Amino acid sequence: MAGRRDFDLIVRGAGPAGAAAAMTAAKLGLRVALVDRKRFPRDKLCGGGLTGRAMAHHRRIFGTDRPDVPLEVRREFAFHAFGQDLGMTRDAPPIHLAMRRELDHHLVDRALAAGAVDVTGHALDLDLGDPAGPVLFNQTMRLTAPLLIAADGVNSPTANALFGQAFDRDRIGFALEIEHLGADPARPLRIDFGAAEWGYGWQFPKTTGTTVGVGGIMARNPDLKAAMKAYMARLAIPEGARVKGQFLPFGDFRKRPGQGRVLLAGDAAGLVDPITGEGIAHALHSGELAAQTAAQAIREAHPEAALGRYTTALRPIHSGLTMARLLRTIMFRRALRPAFIRSFRESRSLREEYLRLLAGETDYAPLMRKTAMRMPGFAARALFGR
């Protein structure tokens, strides 16, 4: 593609949020360009877990019960916290495991098949100075539209252009991950709270190998490599695999997800759960909501209205992430940690509520109530100021 092209909407970033936005916009009849500097398939750091919530969003947006990629279903979870065994949960709501390389490629293909214009494999700069709307350009092409949805990841160049930084370094998370070739699909999925400071570790066995990682708030983990090494030793996984790293929003969402005629979606808007690490579900949903509000504003010839409507549409997600950050305080503040460990270990219903949350069958409010009920009075007072 060369020269100037005018669109109703440009989507920058073709991960799950961008693909969902492009798919939704195309179904709504918009002329939409899907832009990414990389061609697909491409590798992506991610545990690859698709929760029930993510599957429901996929079904609604893409129109099929499940992505047309290899999926492995897991229902067994082993929980650990700060070196202690918290118990096993069997027959939990299912988690589907996918390779992000395959999943993201499939979602992009679906969006393109729906009518989005393929502008992947091109590095484009952003010009926010045109009064007609955002412009993406390089030496050979110029794309214009009244609105831009930026789904360009946690390191979002768009957010950096808008706000001077893509994220707050005091609040951002960071994760390290490997793909271990040893396959053990019969082993349960494992979550280790506290494998990193104010974070956790994960072990996701698949038929092709095992994804192992640790992640936590970066400011509290000056040596995350040491935490990763210790976690691998705990799991008896030999060193030698290539370690990949990436920033994670960890619940540090932007209350105003954009500026002017630019909407931020997915990781670029900070929409990652700080407890479960779930990002794909929020990416799909926010991409859909961004496209829907953009389409309404474009139909009304009032593109500036999109951001306010989008911010309102994101309130339920923002509310859940706010509660998640509160629960994180219970889990990781040293004074409250023993009460959390005891409650989670002794209460099967608390573990099951956590898994229902992960599966998208509930929100944070019931989990918060159950957690507070099981904690001693001093911990509840320390948390809620009562």
From TrEMBL:
Domain of life, source organism: Bacteria
Cross-referenced Pfam families: FAD_oxidored
Matching InterPro entries: FAD/NAD-bd_sf, Geranylgeranyl_Rdtase_fam, Geranylgeranyl_reductase
Protein name from the UniProt record: Geranylgeranyl reductase family protein
Taxonomic source organism: Ponticoccus alexandrii
Lineage of origin: Bacteria, Pseudomonadati, Pseudomonadota, Alphaproteobacteria, Rhodobacterales
